[in-house]
Amino acid sequence: MSTDILAITFPIYAAIAIGYVVVKLGWFGQSDMRTLGKYVMDIALPALLFNAMASRDFAEVFHPGYMLVFALGGLATITVSYLWFTATSTEPSRRAVAVMGTTCPNSGFIGYPVMLLTFPDLAGVILALNMLVENILLIPICLILMDLARGGEQVSISKRVAGILWGVLKRPMVIGLLLGLAVSVVRVPIPGPVAQLFQMLAASASALSLVVIGGSLAGLSLRGNHWKAAQVALGKLILHPGLVALATVAVTAMGLSLSTELTAAVILSAAMPMFGIYSVLAQESGHEGMASIAMLIATAFGFVTLSVLLGALT
Question: For residue 80, what are the CA distances in angstroms to 21, 29, 138, 144, 249?
C-alpha cells in the first residue's frame, strides 16, 4: 500500500478506532456517542452543507451528471439486491433491511472525511450532491420497502411517500443544504463573520463524526444472521460501487461526461460502509442484530476495499 493511500485511510480508521477504544474502556458511554452524533447531524453537518453551497456559484455546485450516476447506481443496487435476497428466500422484512444496507452509504460520517483528505476543494460539494440523491431518492425508496414489508395499517403509497419526504425535508442537514442552494442561486453575499462561524462549525464535523462511528460500533449487538449480514456488507462494499462505476459508463455514453475527480468521487462515495442509523432503522423490523453485524463487517473491511479503490482511482 502506497504512503499516499495510507495517508488517507490511516487517519480515517485511526479516528474510528479511537472512538471504539474510548467506549470499550468506559471513558465515554453510548449516551455520550449519541449526544456527539446528534451534534454532528444537527449542527456541524448542516453548517458544512450550507457553507459548501452558499459560498459557491450555483454552476459550480450543480453537477447533473454526477447526481444521475449516483442515482442510477443506487437504483440498480436496490434492484439487484432485492432480486438476490428474493431468490435466496429471504423473508420480506429482512430483505427490505438488507436492501437498505447495500444501498445507503455513510456519506456524512465517513464519506466526507475521506473526500476531505482526497479532494479537499470538492469535499463539501460532493457531500451535498450525495445527500440530495440519498435523502430525496434512495433512502425514501428503502423506507417504503421496509414499510411495505411490515404490513399493518393499509395506507396509500402516495401518503407513505409524502410522509417520508416530509420527514426528510425536516432534517437539519436537508434544511442547511436547501438554504445554501437558495443563497447560491440568488447570490446573496454572506458577511465575513457569518461565513467564519459556519466554517468553524463545519471544521468540527470530520474528526468528531469518525469518533462517533467508532464509539457506536463498540455498542452494537452481534446477535443475528451472520451469513445474511456478510452478504449485505459484500453488497455495500462491492456491488454498489461496481454498479455506480457501470452507471458512469452509461451516463458518459449519454453525453454527460464527468471530470476525473468527480468520477473517482462518485464511485468512492458508493463504496462507503452503510450509514450510521442503519441498525436503528432496522430495529423497527426486528433485524437490528443482522444490521449491526453488517455494519461492523463493512466498516472493518472497508479499510481494504477503500484502499484498493483509492489506489485505482486517484
Answer: 36, 38, 14, 17, 18
Nearest to 295 by CA among 268, 276, 271: 276
Q: Cβ atoms within 10 A of the Cβ of 173, count?
A: 24
What is the DSSP secondary structure assignment for residue 54, as one 8-state letter?
Answer: H
- pLDDT score for 31: 87
pLDDT tens column, 265-305: 999 999 999 987 888 788 777 888 888 899 999 999 999 99
Number of CB atoms found within 10 A of residue 308's CB: 13
Q: Angle at which helices 45-54 and 123-133 pack, to 10 degrees?
A: 110
Residues 6+ apart with CB under 8 A from 54: 179, 180, 183, 184, 188, 190, 198
Query: Which residues in 16-50 are b (16+ Cβ under 10 Å) and which e?
Result: beebbebbeeeebeeeebeebbebbbebbbbbbbb
